[in-house]
């Protein structure tokens, strides 16, 4: 291992926020130390952390709920990580989810580690980056890592599959788009959270979700994240759900599937620049795209490893 | 060319809706006739169609506006295509954008060709599929193809780059999420449409967008798609914008860039199954994901073309 990675990893173990931030950046950008850091993260402590996915449409109050869950877990003395995958932010900054959570509270609490990951402006690799970030946080002693995504786009939803279990956050009054999206999102998750439970329309949504849950074996919770109502019950329920999944080996199976998603994502990320070079080497692109793609692939395969 | 493709392409030229639908499906699924169909689409008529991107957050009224634009273009006697890229739908059906447009009107008008493309449940390839669908529609005589996406996810936004020019649809009252997303979306587009212009808060949004537009050289339009207000002005404005872009060769440049995006997307799609097989051949995945990915790539390159 290079000495740079060694020092950095020691800093991560000592929960130094700067070391944690740098380690994630190096892995995300594929810097020279990335391989050493990734190898060190294959450590039993990284397996011990529970990864809880929190997804849902914009406007459901995911950030407020995440923040309320953090507050709850902190009263239990647990160290918490948050990886916020955010299609609205750019790589250069302005991440919405993470910043929102960060700005609310916990900014000075070193046992809350928050990282935003942009998907906009990025060609791919979000699963690879998010998986690595989760493990950096676990390596720094986080017992629980919340993996927060806006459940809308193709790339963002793929991240959901990295979690050990996932909660879908909904709220009343989110409009037709969400209505149409709901069934598809419910398929992907273990638990449904009806947030903004203090709003008048919440009871109807809750009743609807309870009917759906009865038919699909999902857990349903009702919260009002802004004042903390129902958050302790949600945290307890997610913990019980994790125990059940663990006992039936389903978490182990999900982690195998997650590893395979991460490997695919890394492979595509590693291939992308080579493929781009192969496409560029074709010269001005005239002709049918699929045929041009086959030429680029042949060229790629002919290059030395 | 195989006789099957020949017959199908003749059907597409004759504007037979079933032939058009089948041709798009074959290309989207990569069926055996795909290569012949794609080759035939390298035809001057496909170059003549103007591809207008329509993007924006959920709730802005994109479907209603698309529907109003269709109605306007139909009064001018133009044949219109719509490719609706939709993260909320699944591959098996239930596409939201396309169905909404289809159900509103035009269901019996054979000069309106509508196709929904799901991104959910799909690992990639949406740019490849959308590009091919646009050309099938152009080949069938569509003068204008509207490429409608929900501007939220990484994969969905990539599709925007396939259009000759793009309009961002916003509406008042879409909440904080959209507020944070706005600047990033404006970067990607040529025109901003403030829809739901009859709502009281629309004037403030319009004033804000006019200020943004003055600073960033975007065109701004105000519509109320539900009653058609401003739609003719929008269509005229987009036409003028297309002329300006054409005169400065920018549409030609964008098409080169779009072709390169499509080729990359096809290449990744073609590589994906090979890569998946290479990952599976590694056996149970234990160890560091990036290192495993490198092994899979080496295995991929060693396979015969």
Identify the biggest protein-protein contact and residues per side. Answer: A-B, 75 and 75 residues
CATH level 1 name of the largest domain in chain A:
Alpha Beta
Largest sheet of chain A: 7 strands, parallel
Helix content of chain A: 55-70%
Distance between the termini of chain A: 22 Å
Mean pLDDT of chain A: 87
The order of strands across the largest sheet of chain A is 3-2-4-1-5-6-7
Helical stretch tally of chain A = 13
Number of structurally distinct domains of chain A:
3
Q: Would you spell out the secondary-structure blueprint of this structure?
A:
The structure is a homodimer of 305-residue chains.
Chain A: H1 3-13, H2 17-29, H3 34-40, H4 44-48, E1 50-55, H5 62-75, E2 80-86, H6 96-104, E3 112-118, H7 126-139, E4 144-149, H8 154-160, E5 165-170, H9 176-188, E6 191-194, H10 202-216, E7 219-222, H11 231-247, H12 250-280, H13 289-302
Parallel strand pairs in A: 1-4, 1-5, 2-3, 2-4, 5-6, 6-7
Helix pairs in contact in A: 1-2, 2-3, 2-7, 5-6, 5-11, 7-12, 12-13
